[in-house]
Design a protein that fits this description.
Blueprint: H1 2-9, H2 31-55, H3 59-75, E1 76-77, E2 80-81, E3 96-102, E4 105-110, E5 127-139, E6 142-153
Parallel strand pairs: 2-5
Antiparallel strand pairs: 1-2, 3-4, 3-6, 5-6
């Protein structure tokens, strides 16, 4: 009797044959809407990449500051930069030019053939520069203010 109760409580469901779906029955997106979605996603990724690039630290500026520090250490004696010591400026592994400008004169030391050229030749987008005011020895016992500048290829 318990067996009859178990089978009688479950209603029988008639089996229906499965019908394959046609192309008209499937979900679809209009080609224009899909194209707009792809363009929006592409623009969003481009904006994100641009913002990420702007947020990153400027390593070439840090490189120019480090090159300027090394150049000042190599050319200064007692805190006064001596133009005759510009030959001692070497920047291994970096294409850098170091300029010393004082009293209308300019001294230039370059680290090799790939070093940036004078200010009129180099393009501002291709280099990073750092400069600082220094005291320059122009004659024994005669010092003037000048500018020491390091220019590094990015």
């Amino acid at each position: 009797m318990s067996r009859d109760l178990a089978t009688s409580s479950v209603p029988e469901v008639p089996e229906r044959p499965t019908v394959p779906l046609s192309g008209a029955d499937r979900a679809a997106v209009e080609p224009t809407a899909a194209l707009v979605a792809v363009v929006v996603v592409g623009l969003a990724l481009g904006l994100y990449a641009g913002a990420l690039d702007e947020a990153s630290p400027d390593r070439s500026r840090q490189t120019a500051e480090a090159a300027l520090d090394r150049a000042e250490r190599a050319t200064a004696v007692g805190g006064v930069v001596d133009p005759s010591r510009m030959r001692r400026v070497e920047q291994p592994g970096t294409a850098v030019a170091v300029e010393l400008e004082a009293n209308g004169e300019r001294w230039l030391a370059a680290s090799g053939p790939d070093a940036p050229g004078p200010p009129g030749v180099r393009s501002p987008g291709a280099v990073a520069a750092a400069e600082r005011r220094v005291t320059v020895r122009v004659a024994p016992g005669e010092n003037i203010r000048g500018t020491l500048r390091a220019v590094v290829w990015r």
